[in-house]
Structure formats: C-alpha cells, structure tokens
Amino acid sequence: MAGYTDRxxxxxxxxxxxxxxxxxxxxxxxxxxVVLGRxxxxxxxxxxxxGVYSHLQQHPLAWLPLPTRxxxxxxxxxxTHVAVGTALLPLVLAKLWVVYPRLFTWPPIxxxxxxxxxxxxxxxxxxxxxxxxxxxxxxxxxxxxGFSFPRAHWGLSWVIMGALLVHIAVKLPVIAQxxxxxxxx
Length: 185
Fold this sequence. Notes:
Layout: H1 2-23, H2 30-58, H3 73-99, H4 112-139, H5 149-178
Helix pairs in contact: 2-3, 2-5, 3-4, 4-5
C-alpha cells in the first residue's frame, strides 16, 4: 500500500508543479499581492465602519447618541459604503488571480500553523466574495435567498474583519518585506 501512496504523491506533486509553472506570470508576485491587499484592507475597513454607522442608525443604542447633523450624513456614508463595496469586487478578484498559484503548493498542508493559515484564508475569501456578491445584488434589490439580507450582511462583516485580522497577522512578515517599493524598481 505504501508504494501506491508514494507513487500517487509523486504524480500529484509533479502535476501541482506543472500547474504552478503554467500559471506563473510576472504580475503574480508577493509585492503585487501586498499592494492589492493594502487597498482591499482599507476598502473593507471603510465598508465596515460605514456599515456599523448604518446599523447603529437603524438599531440605535440608548447609551450611544449619534450625530444627526448634517442631515445628509447618512446618505453620504451609505453612498461611500456602496461605492467602495462595488469597487472591492474586482479588486478581490484581482488579488485572487495574483495568489491563485499558491493554492497548488505541495504538500498542501505543511504544519499546524500552515493549516490554520489556509483555513483562515478560506474563510476570508469565501465570506468576502459572498458579502460582495450579496451587497451587489442588494443594490439591484434582488434577493434570491431565503434569509434576511441585513442580518447576514451584518454577521458576515464581523467574520470578514476577524478573518482579515488573522490573515494580516499571519502574513505580517511578507507584508513588511514588500510594503515599500524596492530601490531601482
């Protein structure tokens, strides 16, 4: 049985290497991922803060008075929320395109820390894409699901912020290494 699993591992490893090589492109570098990640993180933070403001306007807390002036403040924050959320969809897809070959590293899980990292990335990607698609469909007032959009959107925003914090913590060494443009490039 060990011979079969060794041969299977060899075949899978060589297939993953060929796929990584086929997907390789100059744009698929850590620096590109960090630059896109910065923009996406700021975008999600803006959406989160404007979403919390909207939530607190719709479900006020007695002990937290919110400003009511200028009158247009709510419209401005929601316009920002929708505009930034709409802009995030292609940015998230671009980031996925940049990091896509890393999904085919071999072995897929190298340690417990690596397993936690990959699980947190799976949560971040799936919840982010779902949130952005749901938000886009909400702008068209089309709800093809059977659950409450505001509750799901609110809950997913907290999941995304938590997963984003874990992702930043795990990737901090790479982020620090590629934060600034290198001289001569």
